[in-house]
Amino acid sequence: MIIKLSPQGGRAPLSVQKSGDVLIINGESFDFRELPEGAVLPWSAVQCPHLVGDVTRRDGDLIIALGIPCDADSSVAVRFPSDIYNPPDGEVRLPE
Q: Hey, which residues does 84 pair with through a beta bridge?
C-alpha cells in the first residue's frame, strides 16, 4: 500500500488505521480488497471527504491519496509530506 498525502486546509482531524487493504478513516471502514490489479476506483465512488484522488492497484500495491489537515502553523512535515509506503497494520502514523 502507498498512501499519498496532500495538505488540505480547513479539514477536521484525521485518524487512519490499516488492516490489510482495509482503511479505517475517522472510524469509517473502506474495504479495497476486491480492487483488482490495474483497476481505478474514482474518488467520487468512495464517499470519503478525506480521499483526494482515485484509488488504484498497480504492481500489487493499493495507491490511495488522502488529504491531511494543514494550516499556516503546520510543520514542514505536514506542509510537504512524504508518501507512506507499506505501513504495518494498526494506526497509520501521519506527520505532525
A: 3
Confirm whether 95 is domain-assigned: no
**Could you give the CA distance from residue 44 to residue 48 in angstroms, rounded to a whole number?**
8
For 34-45, the pLDDT digits (tens) are 999 999 999 899
Alpha helices per DSSP H over 32-86: 76-79
Q: Which residue has the cell 495538505?
A: 7
Neighbours of 36 (CB within 10 A): 6
Cell numbers at 90, concatenated? 494498526
- The number of domains in the chain is 1
- 82 lies in a domain? no
* Residue 88 lies inside a defined structural domain of this protein: no
How far is Cα 73 from Cα 10, in angstroms, rounded to an integer? 13
Residue 84 lies inside a defined structural domain of this protein = no
- pLDDT for 10: 67
- What is the DSSP track for 15-44? -EEEETTEEEETTEEEE-TT--TT-EE-GG
